[in-house]
Amino acid sequence: MTMLVVAPSLTFSQKKEGKLVEFNNFTANFEVPAGKTWVIESIFSNSIGELISNPDGTTSSTPVRIFIKTINGNIKTDWQGNRFGPQVFQSNNKAGVVSYPITLPEGTKFSLVIVSGDPGKCKEFNGSGFMSLFEVTNE
User: pTM to 2 decimals?
Assistant: First the structure.
């Protein structure tokens, strides 16, 4: 005799709110609120780096990159000191970044930095970045 056991599926009906947060190098400091979890779906920039005229008459641009600068007070990226932590956006190479989604628990403090150019030859970027996330209410 064969016995079939069916277990009820578990579902979680946590409240979640989608957000699109704009930031720049002066405002890129964040803290996940108490009682919430952030699920970051993507981080990107709406700009390209400096345009370069090539000898053959074409143009190219320097890449724009966004790095995690700090997590809970620990410095991950100091681009002026040639120290580079997790890269979350690169305008000319989507495969060169950390995988999404990024899930951060309540109380996590972090900051981002936007630069233009390649590591070791970058400069501060004055454009904007955007972070698309879901803010989930913890149960």
Answer: 0.83
State how far the Cα of 61 lies from the Cα of 63, in Å rounded to an integer.
Answer: 6
Contact 47, 89 (CB under 8 A): no
Judged against a pLDDT cut of 90, whether residue 9 lies above it is answered with no
Contacts of range 58-63, beta carbons closer than 8 Å, 24 or more positions apart: 61/91, 61/92, 62/116, 62/117, 62/118, 63/90, 63/91, 63/92, 63/93, 63/116, 63/117, 63/118
11-47: per-residue pLDDT in tens?
357 899 999 999 999 999 999 999 999 999 999 997 7
Q: Which residues contact 50 (CB under 8 A, 6 or more apart)?
A: 61, 62, 116
Residue 2: per-residue pLDDT: 44
Contact between 87 and 66 (Cβ < 8 Å): yes
CA distance 54 to 10: 58
Where is 114: in which H helix or E strand? strand 109-116
Coil, strand, or helix at residue 94? helix
Whole-number Å distance between alpha carbons of 73 and 23: 19
